[in-house]
Amino acid sequence: MGPHWVAKEPAKGYTRTLGIWALKENIEAVQQLAEETRIQREVKRAISQAQRGRKEAKYRDQFAEAVYEYLDFEPKHKKLARDIAKGMAEHATQVSSGRVGRTRKLTLEDKAALATRAYIWHNYTHYEDQLLEFGFDLKPGDYLYQEVKGEAREAVDEFLSHHRKKS
Question: Left (φ > 0), alpha (ψ -120 to 50) or beta: where does 13 sit?
Fold first, then answer.
């Protein structure tokens, strides 16, 4: 509101704002306007937060359903499939987690497949026990590390084939 000046200073890769100079009346008018609209802004924030929460819950449910469909377990393993799907959805879809469930580069089905295999890998194989057994000295390029990963990959395939519907 009214004339004002912004002090800026160039920095590495960005411009730093140092401050704003304005007439005292203009500053007081802006502060008064901010106070008058504070409650409206808080209400809008709460509404937006609730909408995001509903959207995230819907996405989690869709993700869990995609995981359940990917698993395609026999009816006698239905509870296990639901447990895995629910656990996966909670873990893989956390906002800002950087996990596969958050990427936009893959389809929902591809995300569900990758996340499910990783979940089974870490929770239903001896992968982590083997890593601990060998210590944390294993590097991704090491032969032993590749062996452990290969065994875990095979264990995931066996786990899925054991629980899935037979064609």
Answer: left
